Amino acid sequence: MELQQVPAGPDDQVWAPQECTLPTAERPLRTAEFDALFSEAVQAIARPEPTRLRLDLIFTAENAARTAELAARENCCCSFFVFTFTIADGAMALEMRVPEEQTEVLEALQRRAETAALAGAGPQPI
User: Fold this and answer.
1) H helix or E strand, kind and range, residue 93
2) Residue 95: in which H helix or E strand, if any?
3) Nearest 10 degrees: CA dihedral of 3, 119, 81, 72?
4) For 31-80, what is each residue's pLDDT tens digit?
5) 3-state DSSP of 30-73
6) Of residues 100, 65, 80, 89, the one with CA closest to residue 21
């Protein structure tokens, strides 16, 4: 899959807080990777708490590897994220937690996931 750069928009400013150590030039590519994952693999989106976002994903070996690798790389530049990746009973989920002071980042990520998932398979409420 070829990744395209995503133009900077208002969510991109929140998506990449000051704490992010990813070089500015690489941020659009990372955003595109998340958008591609969201549009191709997200089945459902839930926000059980302001500091927690859960994505239920289509379970395939490719999606599992892609999700784990992307979460690991994101944690390297935005270490405030806590990613929990779960595979059980033929289902797969990615849960993201942030400290209270980073809820705007999680909100921006949720909006991107909802927008991309609607363009792809479409989220189902949990």
Assistant:
1) strand 91-97
2) strand 91-97
3) -40
4) 899 999 999 999 999 999 999 999 999 999 999 999 999 999 999 998 99
5) HHHHHHHHHHHHEEEEEEEECCEEEEEECCCHHHHHHHHHHHHH
6) 80
**How is residue 57 written in tokens?**
């994903």
Query: Cβ distance 77 to 21 under 8 Å?
Result: yes
Residue 8: its H or E element? none
Q: Is the pTM of this model over 0.90?
A: no
Residue 68 identity (one-letter amino acid): A
Q: Which amino acid is at 61?
A: A
pLDDT in tens, 50-62: 999 999 999 999 9
Backbone dihedral angles phi then psi of residue 106, each to the nearest 5 degrees: -65, -40
